[in-house]
Design goal:
alpha+beta; five-stranded antiparallel sheet; 9 strands; about 20% helix
Length: about 200
């Protein structure tokens, strides 16, 4: 059902869960997946599918649908004036911390421009009318969630000393996250648009 078809609700009033992100290329995902493969069958963590691994730059949990068009324009401008970030998966950590972990993540090493890019993405959400949410920017890929807080040092050690292959991001993407309709299912991610960076890598 389209947003405009929801009974009694104007299309412009429907809230959207959206995030601005950078998605690692397939070789990077495969390299990390290979490192984690022996652990992914272990009971306990709820592992995120590799196809959903992404670097979130900014998130809005209730963006009015009317903000979509201005947000697309703002993000096009952000990508056009920022160089493509150089990235590498490195190490791991937990939210809120390793002693009472709810989320296991892989860290990302990046050039200094990444923090400025994340700030610009948050600003684009705000200016378009979609209030950004979340705390300080911590570059990461969410790998797994735990059903209850636990001491997760052994899980962080799985990626101790890990360094993935370096890559240069090619585009900024806007993704809508659709929450599952029933327990036991995962959110569904729908890419709404992608915007090439000002100095994205070229293929020859």
């Amino acid at each position: 059902m389209s947003r405009s078809a929801l009974p009694g609700v104007a299309a412009d009033d429907v809230g959207m869960r959206v995030f601005v992100a950078v998605v690692p290329p397939e070789p990077v995902l495969e390299h990390l997946e290979h490192r984690l493969e022996p652990r992914r069958a272990t009971p306990g963590p709820r592992w995120t599918p590799p196809g959903q691994w992404h670097l979130t730059l900014a998130f809005a949990g209730d963006a009015p649908a009317r903000t979509l068009e201005p947000l697309l324009e703002r993000l096009r401008e952000v990508a056009a004036r920022h160089p493509a970030p150089h990235l590498r998966v490195r190490g791991a950590g937990c939210f809120p911390d390793v002693t009472r972990a709810r989320v296991l993540w892989a860290g990302l090493a990046a050039d200094e421009g990444l923090a400025r890019l994340a700030a610009a993405a948050r600003s684009a959400l705000a200016v378009a009318g979609a209030a950004p949410q979340g705390g300080p920017f911590v570059p990461h890929l969410t790998l797994a969630r735990f059903p209850r807080p636990l001491e997760a040092t052994r899980w962080v050690r799985v990626l101790h000393g890990y360094e993935g292959p370096p890559w240069v991001a090619d585009e900024l993407v806007l993704v809508e996250s659709h929450l599952p309709r029933s327990a036991g299912h995962r959110p569904r991610h729908e890419t709404l648009a992608g915007f090439p960076f000002a100095h994205a890598p070229t293929t020859g």
